[in-house]
Design brief:
Keywords: Membrane, Transmembrane, Transmembrane helix. By secondary structure, the chain is α+β, with helices and mostly antiparallel strands. It is built from ten helices and 17 strands. It has helices at about 15-25, 30-55, 65-85, 140-150, 150-160, 220-225, 235-240, 265-270, 310-315, 345-355; strands at about 5-10, 85-90, 110, 110-115, 135-140, 165-170, 180, 200-210, 215-220, 250-260, 270-275, 285-290, 300, 305, 320-330, 340-345, 365-375. α2 packs antiparallel against α3 (about 65-85). The structure holds zinc ion.
C-alpha cells in the first residue's frame, strides 16, 4: 500500500491541507530517539541474557529488587521502542516470506508508521518526508505480521532468546476484537501463580491504524461541520436541468463528491461502501452515477456493506477511467447516524477480511487501543 492508488480525487480543502502540514511538522525527532532506544535495548538484552544464563534458578524464585528493576527497565524501553520505531529494514512487514513463516534474522520489528498519509482521504502526500514517523500510532499490518511470526521476530530477533514475552492490544471500541500474541495467552507463560512477582506489564494507550489506509473517501463532512455544514463541491446535478437539484434545504443536507476510478484499479482493488450500523437509523438516501450515466433516483442507504465493483465494472468495460459522482441526502437531525466510507481493499486481502469479520466500518478508522507488553526472564 505504499504506492499511490490509481484513483484521482477532486478535492481542495484548505482546512485539511493545514492539518496535513501541522502533522508533518509535529514529529521531527522520533527516528533518532528510536535508534538510541534500540542500541540501549540491544545492550540490555545482552547483559541481562548473561545474567539469566548464569542463574538457572531465576524462574523458581522471586526476583531480587535489582533483577526486577532491570526487567522493568528493559520492558519499558522495549515498549517505547516498538511503539516509536517503524522497524528495520524499511518496510520489513512487506517481506513476502513472512507470509510463509520464513523470517530473516535481519528483521528487527517495530510498529510505528512511517510515510505520512493525508488525514481525510488517506492518500500518501506528495510532500511527505520519508523520515517522519507518525507519533503514537501503530500499524495493524505490522502487528499481524508479528503475531504470525512472534517467536522469530520478537523472541529471537529482538530479545536474542533471553526473555519470554507477550503483546496484546485491547481496542477501546468494543466492536473491534482484542488481539493477543506471544507467551502467556496460551498458558505457555507457565504457572502464573508462581510468577506474580516476576512479570512486568507495560501498558500504553496508542492509536492503531487498522485498515484506515484503505479508505479512499471518508464522508465525514457532517461530522466536521455539524449544523454549519455547507456543500463545497460542485455537483453535476447543479447545472443539469434534467436532474434534481442537490441544494440542502431546511430539513436535509446533500453531500456530493466526485472521484475518478481507473480500470486498472478495478483489477487490483475491491471497492466497497461501508457504513456504521447506525446508518439504518439515519434515514439517508444515496445516488452513485458516472457522469455519462447520470441517475436521478435516490435510494435508501441502509446496508452496512455495499459492493461497488459490479457498478464500476459496467462503466469501465469500454473505458480506461471514469469520473463518478456519489451523493448522499441525510435529514439534518440524523447526521450523527451517518458514518460512511468508500474503501479500496487489495484483492488478495478481501477474502481474509470477510473471513475474519473485519469488513466493517469500525475497522477502517484509526482507533485507540491499550497496548500491553508482558515480559519475564526466560
Ligand atoms: Zn449531488
Amino acid at each position: 500500500m505504499r504506492e499511490k492508488k490509481n484513483i484521482d480525487l477532486t478535492i481542495g480543502d484548505s482546512v485539511r491541507e493545514k492539518k496535513i502540514i501541522e502533522d508533518l511538522i509535529k514529529d521531527k525527532s522520533g527516528l533518532l530517539y528510536s535508534t538510541e532506544l534500540l542500541i540501549s535495548i540491544i545492550l540490555l538484552v545482552f547483559i541481562l541474557g548473561i545474567i539469566s544464563n548464569l542463574s538457572d534458578d531465576l524462574n523458581e524464585k522471586v526476583l531480587s529488587e535489582e533483577e526486577f528493576s532491570s526487567l522493568e527497565d528493559i520492558s519499558i524501553k522495549t515498549c517505547d521502542y516498538l511503539l516509536n520505531n517503524p522497524g528495520n529494514p524499511e518496510n520489513w512487514e512487506e517481506n513476502e516470506n513472512l507470509n510463509n513463516g520464513i523470517v530473516s534474522s535481519n528483521i528487527i520489528p517495530g510498529l510505528a508508521i512511517k510515510n505520512k498519509k493525508i488525514e481525510n482521504n488517506q492518500f500518501y502526500s506528495k510532500s511527505s518526508n520519508d523520515e517522519k514517523v507518525i507519533t503514537n500510532t501503530i500499524s495493524y499490518n505490522k502487528l499481524i505480521k508479528i503475531k504470525n511470526n512472534y517467536n522469530q521476530l520478537i523472541t529471537t530477533n529482538l530479545f536474542n532468546n533471553s526473555f519470554k514475552s507477550s503483546i496484546a492490544i485491547y481496542p477501546l471500541n468494543n466492536k473491534i476484537r482484542p488481539i493477543t500474541m506471544g507467551y502467556g495467552f496460551d498458558n505457555n507463560f507457565g504457572d502464573e501463580n508462581n510468577e506474580e512477582g516476576n512479570i512486568i506489564v507495560v501498558n500504553r494507550t496508542v492509536k492503531c491504524d487498522f485498515y484506515s489506509n484503505f479508505v479512499v473517501y471518508n464522508f465525514n463532512d457532517y461530522e466536521l461541520f455539524r449544523d454549519d455544514y455547507k456543500r463545497d463541491e460542485i455537483c453535476n446535478h447543479d447545472t443539469n436541468p434534467n436532474l434534481t437539484n442537490h441544494t440542502s434545504d431546511i430539513r436535509t443536507f446533500w453531500l456530493c463528491k466526485n472521484f475518478r476510478v481507473y480500470k486498472k484499479s478495478l483489477e487490483e482493488y475491491d471497492f466497497y461502501l461501508l457504513s456504521d450500523e447506525s446508518i439504518k437509523n439515519s434515514n439517508s438516501y444515496w445516488i452513485l452515477e458516472s457522469l455519462n450515466r447520470t441517475n436521478n433516483n435516490k435510494e435508501r442507504l441502509n446496508q452496512e456493506i455495499i459492493d461497488l465493483n459490479p457498478f464500476f465494472r459496467e462503466d469501465l468495460e469500454n473505458s480506461s477511467n471514469e469520473i463518478y459522482s456519489i451523493h448522499f441526502n441525510t435529514p439534518k437531525n440524523n447526521i450523527n447516524d451517518f458514518k460512511t466510507v468508500l474503501v479500496a481493499i487489495p484483492k488478495n486481502m478481501t477474502n481474509n477480511l470477510i473471513a475474519n469479520d473485519e469488513l466493517k466500518y469500525d475497522y477502517f478508522k484509526s482507533q485507540e487501543v491499550n497496548f500491553l507488553l508482558k515480559m519475564r526472564y526466560k
